[in-house]
Amino acid sequence: MSERIPAAPPPGPDVGMLVYCDHLENCSWSEPDAQNRISIISYRYCYPTISGVGIVGSLLLLLVLRDARFGGAGVYTYLRCLMLSDSAALTMAGATFLAETWQTYVDCDGRRLQPRSRAEAIWRIVFVPFANAMVGFSMGVTLWMTYDRYQAVRVPHELWRQRRPERRCGGRPLRIAATLFVSLALHMPQTLGYHVVEHCPVEGDTFYAVSLIHGAASGWVWPFYQWALQVLVRWLPAAVVLYCNSYIIVAIKRRERRVQAIANTMSQQCTESVTRRPRGESSASSCSGVSLVGVCELPRPPAPPPSPLPQRPPSASVDSARRQRQRRQEAEHRMEFLLAATAASYLVSNCLQSALCILELVYEQRDLGFQVNININLPIKYV
């Protein structure tokens, strides 16, 4: 095998710098194996579908929550941010992964590589942390939205009337900005683990690939950082969201049963009070039904003389107020269940994406003797 003089002096250990090849390699083009087929299925079909479902769900919620009564809940702010982050993740990660799944692989001296141009390799190093940061940002916004709803359920009517200023955690724009900053700060160190390597095959044009640096492939800091990032950014918020949503659903069901029990009790008392009176009094009294809080009309004093202006019957006013309260409570419960469904969809999507990241970590850690539960050793994957 003939030697080649480097086109430029090898750079220092700076991460992301180009490492020039110093010899020719025996490379052969091959079809994707089973491991890469799993990656193809995940990134060609699953990832764009998951992000698309999140965007569609946010659009539907924005259409449902058009009523001005929902303005105090702040869901518009959260949903807009979720749509922006999902759109960014879908546009960057979905399109990039979709394009990469159509590329072939090259076996060079026992290593499986995915050939790229220099710009594609640099973009691969930059966009992966940014896309992961957008996913983490979506999870953080979902956590804040769930927290607000959790507090609103614990304190009745706070969802509709924000009487107290948000002193504990700052305003919603401040929360969102802080969440974005923290997510970017946690994910940007991912760029430190990869660098661009030039490969010079015996036959064919020179191509570039992205690989783990030696320190990341052989040390314990890199895998520890990756696992800690998954737990901190995805699994811990997912657990909090799951608990809050469960509490919200149980509280709504309990409230509905309590209101229904009060209404039934008041209706029964109203009926008994009417049947126990003498016949003469019962004709003068009226029981107009029970609202959500129980309203039973007792005998009233003689009505004033009729006025020239038309007046609305008292029973009609009570029925109108009852229907208004009922519609408002139904809208509140419908919104809570819709937001719980949205949070659950983000929970599932983040768990699936986290599973993909875990598989990537498994592929990269063969030198550390890392194994999955089914005890399959997987080779180092050059991305």
From TrEMBL:
GO terms for molecular function: G protein-coupled receptor activity. The keyword Magnesium does not apply. It holds the Pfam family 7tm_1. Residues 303-327 are annotated as: Disordered. GO terms for cellular component: membrane. Its main location: membrane. It is found in: Membrane. Keywords: Membrane, Receptor, Transmembrane, Transmembrane helix. The keyword Membrane applies. Residues 303-313 have a biased composition (Pro residues). The chain crosses the membrane at residues 45-65, 77-100, 121-147, 231-252. It comes from the Eukaryota. PANTHER family: G-PROTEIN COUPLED RECEPTOR B0563.6-LIKE PROTEIN-RELATED, G-PROTEIN COUPLED RECEPTORS FAMILY 1 PROFILE DOMAIN-CONTAINING PROTEIN. This is Putative G-protein coupled receptor B0563.6. The lineage of its organism: Eukaryota, Metazoa, Ecdysozoa, Arthropoda, Crustacea.
